[in-house]
Write a structure and sequence with these properties.
Layout lengths: L7 E6 L18 H4 L3 E2 L10 E6 L2 E8 L3 H14 L7 E9 L2 E9 L4 E3 H7 L3 H20 L2 E2 L8 E6 L2 E6 L6 E2 L5 H24 L12 H17 L2 E3 L5 H12 L3 E10 L4 E10 L2 H10 L5 H22 L5 H27 L3 H19 L4 H17 L19
Antiparallel strand pairs: 1-5, 2-3, 3-4, 4-6, 5-6, 7-9, 8-11, 9-10, 12-14, 13-14
Bound molecules: adenosine-5'-triphosphate and magnesium ion.
The site of adenosine-5'-triphosphate has 22 residues, from strand 4, strand 6 and strand 7.
Length: 421
């Protein structure tokens, strides 16, 4: 073990974060397990570099030790991705450490709350609908990166983190070491990225299979290709040029709505007239995949994942419709949103708070699971059972026993047909 001496530190940290000075910088990260009580164990993907998780000044951070210059570059790339509102871990800073002739740089990122690496996700959920969600999430992440000009260069399951999103999954990039950002990305780089993804994903799955963590019939060597096909469908859906006749101009709005439904915000529409004005050619330029998130955030201040936000916005719109009917006049969306927040969402979260605190669950995801449960119960009762009844029933059925695992709550599907209560 190396002898401690006083290291020279060069710290660059974003405003609003602590300085990270009170850490055992005199030791390499590999030895921190003997020297820091702030270290925490969390489930993680495989990695070549030493990564430590630190509970520091009330926040949880991932620290990755890299050669000098590499952490700085990864920090810059992650920063740009964050500025472009892409799903990637949030960079906090980088620290250059010089200790005698030992030199390194440490990249600090914020721990991605409620996230899980693929191992814990796949090993516990090899059922088809769940795997489909995982593949869609991977494809969706690559599409978002490529639309923004980001070549990843090392897309793999290990370099991705997953968060639950209203029963589906949202994928986040966690390792940007090999990434490049292009103003316009050439198709060859997209294809390279897809080839790398396919090879890496098949390799990740083969590792799991070798450790006997997958069912014998798991399609290890076709999963990467399945992500590629999903990627291609989504890419074409977003980037294709649509030909419309001038009398079908309503199709312009239809196209925007279809993209919004997929979560994409449309920044611009490029429309060209052709053949003496007989046809219009239209292409949408999407900015990011935060359409419903932005709406919900603007109306309520809540930060959620995209599909969670879509579900909540649907509730707000339904509330607005019933308020408008009741009062016989149109009600502003902001009024309905405020009422929903104060009278529906926050009371529900208060009832669930003990469970949320005990398991560090994502409140938005739990709320979406309650909505799903309410829907099943209401269908069975042939009438709206209301949020309160749904919460009580959900707590009784699912959360009392499952609450001690420390895992994210599994999305529970209530089977109305087999309910004998
Ligand atoms: N901000 C974060 N939040 C949550 N988990 C993280 C974070 N940063 C890293 N991890 C976990 O640590 C693992 C390793 O990180 P990372 O992939 O960046 O290391 P690496 O050594 O560069 O990997 P590679 O071997 O692919 O080069 C990730 O798979 C992830 O599980
Ligand atoms: Mg990695």
């Amino acid at each position: 073990m190396s002898q401690p001496s006083i290291p020279v530190l060069n710290i660059s940290i974003r405003p609003g974060f602590p300085d990270f000075l009170d850490l055992p910088w005199e030791y390499p990260l590999a030895e921190w397990r003997f020297h820091s009580e702030l270290r925490v164990e969390v489930p993680r993907g495989v990695s070549r570099h030493i990564v430590e998780f630190i509970n520091y000044a009330g926040g949880l951070y991932a620290l990755k030790e890299l050669p000098v210059g590499v952490a700085e570059r990864e920090y810059d790339l992650l920063r740009e991705m964050n500025e472009n509102r892409l799903p990637a871990v949030r960079p906090v800073g980088h620290i250059q450490v010089r200790n005698g002739d030992r030199q390194s740089s440490v990249l600090i990122t914020q721990f991605l709350d409620y996230s899980q690496p693929y191992r814990s996700i796949i090993v516990n959920n090899t059922q088809p609908p769940f795997i489909e969600n995982l593949l869609d999430a991977m494809a969706g992440l690559l599409v978002q990166l490529h639309l923004a000009g980001v070549y990843w260069g090392d897309c793999s399951l290990s370099n991705t983190l997953f968060r639950r999103d209203a029963g589906t999954l949202q994928a986040y990039l966690v390792d940007a070491e090999t990434a490049e950002i292009h103003i316009e990305m050439p198709p060859t780089l997209r294809h390279d990225d897809l080839n790398i993804m396919e090879e890496n994903v098949n390799g990740d799955l083969a590792d799991l299979a070798a450790s006997r963590l997958l069912p014998a019939d798991f399609p290890i060597f076709t999963t990467g290709n399945s992500i590629r096909q999903r990627y291609q469908r989504l890419w074409d859906e977003i980037t294709h040029e649509e030909v419309i006749h001038p009398r079908e101009r309503y199709k312009i709005q239809e196209r925007i709505r279809a993209l919004n439904k997929l979560g994409f915000s449309v920044g611009e529409l490029e429309i060209r007239t052709e053949e003496n004005g007989d046809v219009l050619k239209m292409r949408a330029v999407v900015t990011d995949r935060n359409f419903h998130r932005d709406q919900l955030l603007g109306l309520t201040g809540l930060e959620t994942e995209e599909k969670q936000a879509e579900k909540m916005m649907n509730e707000i719109r339904e509330l607005r419709a019933s308020l408008s009917m009741e009062k016989n006049r149109s009600i502003a969306l902001s009024v309905a949103a405020y009422k929903w927040l104060e009278e529906v969402f926050l009371p529900a979260i208060r009832s669930l708070q003990p469970y949320i605190d005990r398991n560090q669950s994502d409140p938005a995801e739990l709320y979406c699971a309650i909505l799903e449960h309410k829907w099943y119960l209401s269908e069975k009762a042939q009438g709206d059972v209301g949020h309160h009844a749904a919460i009580m029933d959900y707590l009784n059925r699912f959360l009392d026993t499952g609450s001690r695992t420390g895992e994210l709550p599994e999305p529970q599907v209530y089977d109305a047909q087999n309910d004998d209560r």
